[in-house]
Specification:
Length: about 150
């Protein structure tokens, strides 16, 4: 299995590239959608985000109102780091679980992850069939893509 993370700034074409890869048969894991699911009503991170940013970010359904959260979370670098500290570990764990499941499906030969806050780096394993672009270790506690087999 090949793993490719599509990274870049806002408006750089990540979604377009992910869609094209999906059209070619790749499994696409959209991290923005994943994070929104984790913070929606009943999601495992909703209460922690609401506790950190206040009841003003609670949606009528009980999850996080993302527009209200964005105004608070991206107001300063400190509040953005606070949100990252809550959401990123859950997203990385969910992606690792999804990749583990995909690795067990013999018919899937390609997989791609779409993400933005990360920078490319070489795979940490010597497995030549795994191409992994991931976030620096300080942003991905406990997450290991190097255990994936081709």
């Amino acid at each position: 299995m090949y793993v490719l993370a599509v990274t870049g700034g806002i408006g750089s074409g990540k979604t377009t590239v992910a869609r094209l890869l999906g059209d070619l048969g790749a499994t696409v894991i959209a991290l923005d959608d994943l994070a929104k699911g984790l913070t929606s009503a009943g999601g495992p991170l909703a209460d922690a985000v609401i506790a950190a940013f206040g009841e003003g970010v609670r949606s009528a359904e009980g999850g996080v109102e993302h527009k209200a959260l964005a105004k608070l979370a991206f107001a300063t670098p400190e509040t953005a780091r606070r949100l990252d500290g809550i959401v990123h570990p859950g997203v990385y764990a969910a992606v690792a679980g999804a990749l583990d499941l995909l690795a067990e499906v013999p018919s899937r030969r390609r997989s791609s992850c779409s993400t933005s806050p990360c920078s490319p780096r070489r795979p940490s394993s010597s497995t030549s069939s795994t191409a992994c672009w991931s976030c620096p270790p300080t942003r991905t506690p406990g997450w290991r893509a190097s255990s994936l087999a081709a």
